[in-house]
Amino acid sequence: MSLPPGRPNEGDVPLGGTARSARVHSVSHALGVLRSALFVLWLIVTVIPWASAVLVVSIFVRGNPVYWMCIGWLRVAIWGARVICGVRHRIEGMEQLPSAADMRAVMLCPKHQSTWETFAFPTLMSHPLCYVFKRELLYVPFFGWAMSRLDMIHIDRSKRAEAWNKVAEQGRRYMSTGHWVIMFPEGTRTPRGSQGIYKHGATRLAITTGVPVVPIAVTSGRCWPRKSFVLRPGVIDISIGKPIPVEGREPDELMREVERWIETEMRRLDPEAYGAQR
Fold first, then answer.
1. Taking a C-beta distance cutoff of 8 angstroms, is the pair 213, 184 a contact?
2. Does the residue 214 lie in any domain?
3. CA distance 130 to 112
4. Residue 19 Cα to chain centre, angstroms
5. Which secondary structure element, helix H or strand E, spans residue 82, and what is its range?
6. Average confidence (pLDDT) over 159-173
7. What range does the domain containing 198 cover?
């Protein structure tokens, strides 16, 4: 039986809808790439003079003044991600952390999905952060050069015993001056909705220095996926857990508690990413 004139075939509507959807997706992706390219340009244009100024100032001044000077650029970077690419964030649990006037140290153990949290966390925390990272980052022009002037712990991963001794010695020294050490237990960025292997280096250092461990969940992969320069508009959720005492604990057993809290919280904050794996 033929259809009345002007009435579409059953298959025509889905095809038309699919074509329109594909065009919309293509335009949206192109705009996303354009915005992200502008954001990368923004980072380059701002980091060169900022890092140059840091290098000059660090000849005469070291320590916290140089750190907070660098944090100024990170705020500029996060502002650019919000204004240019539409990446916003919301945070819960800040009351779990010591205030700026409280000199108690903590060990921060965040989920690691993106470059975003490495930029954002220093701008959010009341105390200077001391990152533990591979020394190769120091060779990144301008950005790495400025990092070399900060109180950070850069290690040679090929020399594990020597690396741990350096982390323990410098971590203890920096935390005694009010710095918070931050280590990503998974070691590297993981895809959204996945779980890496949680290594106990952070809890080992926390037990060695006697400071509590603070687990942090962050859904940054939602907006800035790993190994991608294309940022997606959206909201990144950050959830800060209660500090976990380290007295009488073993590093591996303590890290399992950190892992359980983070991964449970990640599934609460970003259920669609983990639901897709079921």
1. no
2. yes
3. 16
4. 37
5. helix 64-85
6. 87
7. 12-275
> What domain count does the chain have?
1
For residue 139, what is the domain's CATH number?
3.40.1130
Specify if 3 maps to a domain.
no
Closest CA to 255 of 188, 186, 181: 186
pLDDT digits (tens, 9 = 90+) for 249-261: 999 999 999 999 9
Task: Report the C-alpha gap between 71 and 159 in whole angstroms.
Answer: 30
Measured between alpha carbons, how far is 109 from 255 in angstroms, rounded to an integer? 9
Residue 35's nearest CA partner among 88, 76, 81, 79 is: 81
Q: How confident is the model at residue 24 (pLDDT cuts 50, 70, 90)?
A: low
What does the alpha-carbon distance between residue 35 and residue 41 come to, in Å, rounded to a whole number? 10
Residue 257: which H helix or E strand, with range? helix 251-269
The conformational region for residue 210 under phi > 0 = left, psi -120 to 50 = alpha, else beta, is left
Two tokens, residue 150: 């900060």
Give this prediction's pTM: 0.87
Distances 273 to 26, 106, 218, 278 between C-alpha atoms, Å: 22, 30, 13, 10
Tell me whether residue 47 is in a domain: yes
Q: Tell me the two tokens of residue 268.
A: 């609460």
